[in-house]
Amino acid sequence: MPSLEEARALLAANPFPPNPWIEITDDAILIKCGFTDTLERILRWVPKARWVSEKRHWTVPLTAAEMIRSVLPEVSRLAEATLEEDAALRRARARSLVEPQAPVTPPAPRVAPAELPTARDLFRDSARLLFGTDWQRDTARALGRDEPALACWLVGEQVVEADESALLGEMLDLMRRRAVEITAAADRFERVKAALAKPAEG
Length: 202
Prior knowledge:
Layout lengths: L3 H10 L8 E3 L3 E4 L5 H7 L6 E3 L4 E5 L3 H6 L1 H27 L20 H13 L3 H9 L3 H8 L9 H34 L5
Antiparallel strand pairs: 1-2, 2-4, 3-4
Helix pairs in contact: 5-6, 5-8
């Protein structure tokens, strides 16, 4: 990650293209759009990115500018979608104030057939199992993958460097290696525990 001065110099040399959703300040990048789970998953990969609810924008450190540049098309698409959703919600609220409300009969609950998880869900769940809450960066490092590219794939974009079957194969190999390491560590733990439990010889 570059320093703040290096980030400013890089942006001066190669500024972001004009974008109504992005504002560059002296020390941060503001992404001016509503909150969405998809955008939250993308920005989870960006150190110190945070949602500012009272101002309805995301704040990202200027030092993460190149990570944001790599996902800028997806960020713009999501920002446009949240704007359209907000407008539709305002129109619906305005209509509800002037139109009489008909009684609503809730639909009968439908029982969905059991479905297999998607490749992305399988990958994400396995990564969380291995690395806990900070699984995004640790997973990319363990697999030697580019963090922004992997983040884009996890939210539905294509990954240039590999197809999903390759990523799932890498995750399976990683899980098997970790399982072997954990089993070996558990065996050693058991031996040491047994040795500690023996009464000291006088």
